[in-house]
Amino acid sequence: MKMYLHTFQLPLRHTFTIARESIDTQETLIVELVDGDVHGYGESTTNQYYGYTLENMAAALEAVRPRLADQSLDDPVRLWEELSDTLGANPFAQCALDLAAHDLWGKKQGQPTHRLWGLTTDRIPMSDYTIGIDTIDTMVAKLQEFPDWPIYKIKLGTPHDLEIVRQLRRHTQAVFRVDANGAWTVEQTIENSRELAQLGVEFIEQPLAAEEWEGMRRVVQASALPVIADESCQVAADVDRCAGHFHGINIKLCKCGGLTPARRMIDCRCWTMSTWTAHCCCAKTLPLASRCSKAAACTRIGPDTVSSC
User: What is the DSSP string of 134-153?
Assistant: First the structure.
């Protein structure tokens, strides 16, 4: 197989702010795999929190280029396993290659990936639209740009989080989900959950910092809403640890290393979870299609979709 790397700068319609950072442009890496006359594509964005850049993703992929050149693609899972000794340290690069391999595999078979997995798209859950932190008036305006969206994910982590949700609720009866990206305390989470439940919020995502396991045990026992792990659940090995600390997990292709490990996280039955959510990171293009394959096995989906120009 041949591999080509393409980089892009994706400008956002609005500055996208969460509790810990703001971005105006999303850098993205696209991997193109070519086997004969068939092309497969995969993608990963950069991420400051996790420490993955265009440079270190490209370097990780260049390290496996000679091994790709010696083979044709028959099984993307086997390829993921064969290269995990090198790519495992950079799951964002691993993800881009794994998505490209699954795309290539499906095209060679003449079938979409979900169908090759024996899944159907007849009952895919609805996706959410993410509203980044801003002034309340600007957040309302962002909602009104997409007024009929069935579910909104609201980024929080400000001194006036409840007021943000109150004001947004005045403009829609859609389902809300909130994500504090680790900005709250145990006490804030429990207290906020009570009013948020009255405001039609479905769940709270990652209220505490990723390492606050004892705090999350207290939250999960007292919260009026389900709490979902994001930063606390990055790879398959984290799933079991989330038991007793969260009601569900957010599976992001980039942070876990692609569709191959994402399926394993979904299939894990070491404990009973009420919610499996499938997400992509901000402003992606190609992984939205890959996420559709994964979504067929999830109870909720939300791609962290924000508008690009």
Answer: --HHHHHHHHHHSTT-SEEE
